[in-house]
Design brief:
The complex is a heterodimer of chains A (448) and B (262).
Chain A (H helix, E strand, L loop, with lengths): L5 E3 L2 H7 L13 E3 L3 H14 L3 E4 L16 E4 L6 E5 L4 E5 L4 H9 L17 H7 L6 H4 L2 H4 E7 L5 E4 L13 H4 L8 E8 L6 E9 L2 H14 L4 E8 H11 L10 E9 L2 H17 L5 E4 L3 H12 L1 H8 L1 E8 L7 H9 L7 E7 L4 E8 L4 H7 L2 H8 L24 H14 L14
Parallel strand pairs in A: 2-4, 3-4
Antiparallel strand pairs in A: 1-2, 5-6, 6-9, 7-8, 7-9, 10-12, 10-13, 11-12, 11-15, 14-16, 15-16
Helix pairs in contact in A: 8-10, 9-12
Chain B lengths: L10 E5 L2 E3 L21 E3 L1 H15 L5 E8 L4 H10 L3 E6 L2 H4 L4 H15 L3 E5 L10 H9 L3 E11 L2 E8 L2 E8 L2 E5 L11 H7 L4 E4 L32 H10 L5
Classes of the chains: A alpha+beta (448), B alpha/beta (262).
Catalytic activity (chain A): (R)-malate + A = oxaloacetate + AH2
Protein name (chain A): D-2-hydroxyglutarate dehydrogenase, mitochondrial
EC number (chain A): 1.1.99.39
């Protein structure tokens, strides 16, 4: 192994093995921190020869246990692969190693008037390689699309140690099969992403954040439709916080809800190049929804600090629920009209169980709801009442049982609720083809 | 305005300055004549926001009868007046100062303007932020009081009205000081006075219909000739990295090297 890299054992292992929301712990005793693609290639070749299992790990902020070892797999951390290699101002393409932290990349491209095309709560810790490997969604997907669109090129090391070079800075490239699409979202089971080239949009010069209160979910849908129609190209986020989630951030984190009424809260953000133009559109939109009664109260942030405070009401819900007890987390995609039905049905379904609360919040703009159920501590009975009911419910609406979090360790066995058996069979064939010895992130993503 | 009966008008004048937003990373211009303001997010000076909030609370307690927000500067200042109106101020006054002259506008000019306005508007109280977060001058309240020969209560963290006086708790080095000042008076706000409200939609809409009068400093007989010339603006020196020292001998030799000891 290259002497330039580091092999660290003992105390680092504990930190790297405990999943961010305290659910899963593995028992690895070796963490490797390569610095270059070549290092990764030698590590994988060695492990493949000796049939040693490897868990690629970025910021370890995943929510389905995809980045932690289950047994004694070797942890391959991208922490030291954090070089930004290039930024093309004209095309807006940033090229970097997989271990760059998302926020660091965003700060870097900001200096050239650009922004990273995704944003999520874990931005200060997550690595771009991990984001790409899980095809992270985030808060602004309705504006900037998914990583399947914004990743223009990537480089990955396969199980054998072979370097798969799919690097490109081209917006359009129809030369053969687009292999990188297979790797995006493959959760480190088909290859270790080592380099990425990402298309960055212009950084908005004018940002507005508004929090609106609605009395019913039907009103939320009306507001959403109006927002898409009237705010149109400047709409950059449309998030939902239900009243239970709002009460949680008020109670456990002492955050301030500026609105006094409302069953549902919509956090809306606009991003554009011209403050006057955006304000005019926003004012017209607010006038319209207030007049027709779909919005009963609301506020527009005055200043950046108020914008951050309003965003915190949405971004810190998960943290607030952690304070309540153990959280059963579900991240599902549904037809937007059914977004909140799952929460209502789950509440009804769990009535009488030892449940503290049932919460629904998330990306109502793209139909992705975060359903959370809390109990005092982990309760297997409650777990069985929720699953597989929740997955069957989602299947019934032809939704996805994991919108953006991925399958990882926790949800691998539920893949058939959202994917046809034949599709899963082909996934397994690809896995066998690319990782014949099954050393890359075993026990993850695909069922046994 | 409705009939007030025996109660007198209690008009509060609130100074509102448009400054670079608190959360923005400020950059010095390459020519070192100032900081970059083009395309940079601006908002109402946080301490002035606290002043507006306090004035609105006084009105809600039926102590104040009218709140007039004042801002001096180029047309963009109307943005902060709109914020003040959305929070509950009744009307605004924009003292028009064009960009070139605004660059050299100082607290001494602003305080003369506020003093003249207070007389014109028959104000019972002037409240401003203790300082603006761009220049950190902390002078306007004090100078305004001097020009009017009114009492001043600065760094207020609590304001109570008792008959014709105000009981004001001030934040001072070493603790809190409570003083009684006769009205009319000039106050400046400190951080812990209150937590400003969010402007809610109905009020934001109403604010668009509220009046903003325009005046020029000359209309008030105030001369805003430049008093101060900025020679150079620089970033603070980059913090030097520290050095970790192994033992006392090394410390002594390093101190000697740097010339701190013989």
């Amino acid at each position: 192994m290259s002497s330039r890299s580091e092999a660290i054992t003992c105390e680092f292992c504990i930190a790297l093995q405990v999943r961010v929301l305290y659910c899963i712990t593995g028992a690895s005793s070796l963490v490797l921190k390569p610095k270059t693609t070549d290092d990764v290639s030698r590590i994988m070749a060695h492990c493949d020869k000796r049939h040693l299992a490897v868990v690629p790990q970025g910021g370890n902020t995943g929510l389905v246990g995809g980045s932690v070892p289950v047994f004694d797999e070797v942890v391959l951390s991208t922490a030291l692969m954090n070089k930004i290699l290039d930024l093309d101002e004209i095309s807006g393409v940033v090229t970097c190693q997989a271990g760059c932290i998302l926020e660091t990349l965003d700060d870097h491209v900001a200096e050239r008037g650009l922004a990273m095309p995704l944003d999520l709560g874990a931005k200060a810790s997550c690595h771009i390689g991990g984001n790409v490997s899980t095809s992270a969604g985030g808060l602004r997907l309705i504006r900037y699309g998914s990583l399947h669109g914004s990743v223009l090129g990537l480089e990955a090391v396969l199980a054998s140690g072979e370097v798969l070079d799919c690097m490109s800075g081209m917006r359009k490239d129809n030369t053969g099969y687009d292999l990188k699409q297979l790797l995006i979202g493959s959760e480190g089971t088909l290859g270790v992403v080592t380099k990425v080239a990402i298309l960055c949009p212009s950084r908005p010069a004018a940002v507005n954040v508004a929090l609106l209160a609605c009395n019913s979910f039907a009103d939320v849908l009306k507001t959403l439709q109006k927002g898409k129609a009237m705010l149109s190209e400047i709409l950059s986020a449309f998030e939902l916080i239900d009243s239970a989630s709002m009460m949680a951030v008020e109670k456990y984190l002492h955050l301030r809800n500026p609105l006094s009424s409302g069953e549902f809260y919509c956090l809306i953000e606009t991003s554009g190049s011209h403050a006057g133009h955006d304000e005019e559109k926003l004012t017209a939109f607010l006038d319209s929804v207030m007049e027709e009664g779909s919005v009963c109260d609301g506020t527009v942030a005055q200043g950046i600090t108020q914008q951050k405070d309003l965003w915190a009401l949405r971004e810190r819900v998960a943290e607030a629920l952690l304070r309540e007890g153990y959280t059963y987390k579900y991240d599902v995609s549904l037809p937007t009209r059914h977004f909140y039905d799952i929460v209502v049905d789950m509440r009804r379904h769990l009535a009488g169980a030892a449940v503290l609360g049932c919460y629904g919040y998330g990306h109502v703009g793209d139909g992705n709801v975060h359903l959370n159920v809390t109990t005092r501590q982990y309760d297997a009975d409650v777990g069985h009442r929720i699953e597989p009911y929740v997955f069957e419910w989602v299947r019934g609406r032809h939704g996805s049982i994991s919108a953006e979090h991925g399958l990882g360790f926790k949800k691998r066995d539920f893949i058939h609720y959202s994917k046809a058996a034949s599709a899963v069979a082909w996934m397994k064939r690809f896995k066998t083809l690319m990782d014949p010895n099954g050393i890359l992130n075993p026990y993850k993503t695909l069922p046994e | 305005m409705g009939v007030l009966g025996p109660k007198m008008a209690f008009r509060v004048l609130v100074g509102c300055k448009r400054v670079i937003d608190y959360a923005v990373k400020v950059r010095v211009k390459p020519d070192k004549t100032g900081v970059v303001t083009d395309g940079v997010k601006h908002s109402l000076n946080p301490f002035d926001e606290i002043a507006i909030e306090e004035a609105v609370r006084l009105k809600e307690k039926k102590i104040a009868t009218e709140i007039v927000a004042v801002s001096c500067g180029p047309p963009k200042c109307q943005e902060v007046l709109r914020t003040a109106l959305a929070m509950g101020a009744d009307r605004g006054i924009h003292i028009e100062v064009p960009d070139e002259e605004y660059a050299s506008l100082q607290p001494i000019h602003v305080s003369k303007i506020l003093a003249k306005l207070a007389a014109q508007e028959e104000a019972s109280m002037i409240i401003v932020g203790k300082q603006a977060i761009d220049d950190d001058c902390n002078q306007t309240a004090q100078m305004t009081a001097a020009f009017l020969d009114w009492p001043q209560a600065t760094f207020a963290s609590k304001i109570e009205k008792t008959n014709g006086d105000l009981l004001v708790t001030r934040e001072v080095d070493g603790g809190l000081e409570t003083i009684k000042v006769k009205l009319p008076a000039v106050l400046s706000t400190d951080l812990r006075l209150n937590e400003p409200r969010y402007a809610t939609l109905p009020n934001i809409m109403k604010a668009k219909k509220k009046k903003i009068d325009k005046k020029k400093p000359a209309d008030l007989g105030v001369d805003i000739t430049q008093h101060v010339e900025v020679l150079k603006v620089e970033e603070p020196p980059v913090r030097q990295a520290g050095v970790i020292i192994e033992n006392a001998e090394q410390l002594v030799s390093k101190l000697r090297e740097a010339g701190h000891i013989q």
